[in-house]
Amino acid sequence: MSQAAAIETSRAEALGRRRRRAARGRSVSAALLVAPLLVFVLVSFAAPIGAMLLRGVEDPEVGPVLPRTLAALERWDGTDLPDEATFAALVEDLRAARAAGTLPVAASRLNHDTAGLRTTLVASARRLAAPFEGSAREAVLRADPAWGQVETWGAIVRARGPWTDFFLLAALDLRRDATGRIGPVPEDQAIFRTVFLRTFWIAAMVTAITLAAGYPLAALIALARPSVSAVLLFLVLLPFWTSLLVRTAAWMVLLAREGVVNHALIALGLFGAPKQLLFNRFAVVIAMVHILLPFMVLPLYAVMRQIPPIHLRAAASLGAPPLAAFWRVWLPQTLPGIGAGCLMVFIQALGFYVTPALLGGGADQMLPYFIGFYANQTVNWGLAAALSLLLLVATLGIVGLYGRLVGFSAVRTA
Amino acid sequence: MSALRLLWWAVSVAVALFLVAPLLVIVPLSFSEGSFLHFPLPGVSLRWYHAFFASEFWLASLWNSLVVGLSATAIATALGTLAAVGLWLAPLPGASAIMGVLLLPMVVPSIITAVALTFAYAPVGLASTHLGLIIAHAALASPFVVVTVGATLTQFDRTLLRAAAACGAGPVTAFRRVMLPLILPGVVAGAVFAFATSLDESVVVLFLAGPSQRTLPRQMFAGLKDTIELTILAAATMLTVLSLVLMLLVRVLSARGAAAGRP
């Protein structure tokens, strides 16, 4: 090996070292640039959502308040009333909790399980506060007859914590009985399956209508003269940029009893008197279709724009009638756009809160309304979290499935 | 053939009209002299706009919307631009997971965000405060900045940074004097998207904000639950005009941004 070659090699090595060092420096800079937003989103957004979803499987309230009772109930099989020792433990727990002021928290948690248990717990604690003679069992049953029902004790066992499937089961209209077997809740309490079906049904209906209405429009924007498609695209983008609440308000004014549509139809002689067009399924669906149509048209247009118009002319010159050319040449190439549009619309439709709340009736409220209701009105955080978890799993599941089947590279948003 | 074509045109134009008709209805109604929700107008006047600017509720909500929107936009634009540049600069380990977290606020249904943030912000004293709402809106708006700036950066010529370094510029100077001027249209477009997101946000504000953080959407929501006054339509018309301005701004900027990085 000559001296010149050796110098050449060491030079090359030095250059390689410098390159590697520069690349490492770039990676460090990149990490430092991404870190602020990453930390911000994790702390202010992702952590709160994670914490709330955990609430759907946590059950921290009853365990610390009724420790002796729960310990005594460990040996209980749930078929018959517990033994004398358990009743005595309950009396001790209730007295201690009443003195410490911790009873209300546990009482409202048990009330989420069985309505009326809050009163049972608070009243029993008050009546059992004074010392009594004789058996604890009889004193407790005197304090409130609810203690004579197996299911009252079942509710306490169900709320044992620290982890629970109670809220997730409740969100699916299921519950465990006192022995721990899973079964359906009573008919009059089973509402969530209806709500899930309604939510998916409304979302599917809105998706189908936006596809049927949006496809021809997107095709026209893609194939028409530049001047025509510029105007049409503007008509799609203007509502796309307009506030959701403005558009919901517009539909309320249009459909009101004394509103534009009723008046126009009476003036045309189609109605004798104003009809109730608001607070029903029709109003919710038409407003949702209006709000989500741009999300269908834009991905469709983005894909259709990429299809060379010469394909249709080629099909025609090979003797295909227009419908056949559309069906066999054009439509298959727009499938990624159809997929992307339907995904965007369906997922957003699942999460609609404001529009159904303002335009729908009681029977048109979707899953998000119930999440808000349990979080705000009844302050049943566990159930709100369990419903959120199911909505999020549905949303992310559909996105994941789409990514698996179609992939996201096919569509560039307009 | 021509019958099919006619049908296709007719359906498309009908759908396009369906898209703009509601807006075309509320704008004239907001200039009504009367208080009816239907046509014909008894006369044209600005009374509902006077009512808007005479009402301390509406004015306060307009002010809140601007304060929260601009503050959230500033945070989201600053952090989002840095993150987009970082993601573009070098491949990071777990880049797709990082991107997933950064885009999360775009994907999570807004009711879940609203309930979760209320639950998390209340114990630390951020519920019913301007700061809490600003933080929430900044998080919700940041993905739009990351995506918009990231798209602009794909056009940016990497050798320009090397040239700046060769001329002796430090990384900060190179960013400030070479990169930022070229990607500025994308950054401003991202900021406009962020502001529009905050301005339109209606669910988180319903749950997280108190009476003194009423924004325009929240005030409109409250008004729609009540008897509908035409003041709402005056507010809606002004919001629509604002949206139109923002939209045109983004169109102009993206046309410019396409030319970024090409001297």
Automatic annotation (TrEMBL), chain A:
GO terms for biological process: transmembrane transport. Its main location: membrane. Belongs to the binding-protein-dependent transport system permease family. CysTW subfamily. The chain crosses the membrane at residues 28-54, 200-223, 230-254, 260-278, 285-304, 310-331, 338-359, 379-402. PROSITE patterns: ABC_TM1 (PS50928). Keywords: Cell membrane, Membrane, Transmembrane, Transmembrane helix, Transport. Coiled coil: none annotated. This is ABC transporter permease. Residues 196-402 form the ABC transmembrane type-1 domain. Pfam families: BPD_transp_1. It is found in: Cell membrane. GO terms for cellular component: plasma membrane. It is a multi-pass membrane protein. It comes from Elioraea tepida.
TrEMBL record, chain B:
Its main location: membrane. One of its GO terms (cellular component) is plasma membrane. The chain crosses the membrane at residues 6-27, 66-89, 101-122, 134-153, 182-210, 230-253. CDD domains: TM_PBP2 (cd06261). It is a multi-pass membrane protein. Pfam families: BPD_transp_1. Residues 62-250 form the ABC transmembrane type-1 domain. Keywords: Cell inner membrane, Cell membrane, Membrane, Transmembrane, Transmembrane helix, Transport. It is found in: Cell inner membrane; Cell membrane. One of its GO terms (biological process) is transmembrane transport. Belongs to the binding-protein-dependent transport system permease family. PANTHER family: INNER MEMBRANE ABC TRANSPORTER PERMEASE PROTEIN YDCV. This is ABC transporter permease. It comes from Elioraea tepida.
